[in-house]
# Entry
Amino acid sequence: MYNGEGVPEWFNNDSLRAAYYYTEAVIYAALEELDKSKENLDKVFEIDSLHPSAHHRLGRFLIAEQQYDKALLHTSKAIAGDSLNNDFLEDYGYALSMTGNYEKARGVYRQLIVREPKEPNHYRLASILYAATGMPHMAISILDSADYKLGYFEPLAKMKR
# Structure
């Protein structure tokens, strides 16, 4: 059904309209038309300023553009809206580390290790953060834990050496 303006009735529902614009943003991102993608994300934020997926996608764009302070703002909003999403948490941890918030970033990567114990990159990044903040013994401990959980993994073994 259409309303009198030639617009589908479902389009009057804010959450469906936000989902529509978010889907358009994803499509334009896949087509590498980032300006159109960002325009659609702006429309999402006009409807729902707390839309976690839109904040995550914009945070990813900003990370790619090396605008880490802005990326941190959006990735933190994504986490506030959906704290169980590991992709959101990974990008939040990355933005934290790139803005010098190493202690918070360490905590994020430790959470990721617990959530995804078979992902070697989380161990690698956590150990780098510990080493960078003057805690090499903890970096080795993280890598030992990776050895135990993952078995021998050459890139992590090289780091430990």
Observations:
- Residues 52 and 78 are 4 Å apart (CA to CA).
- DSSP finds nine helices and no strands in the chain.
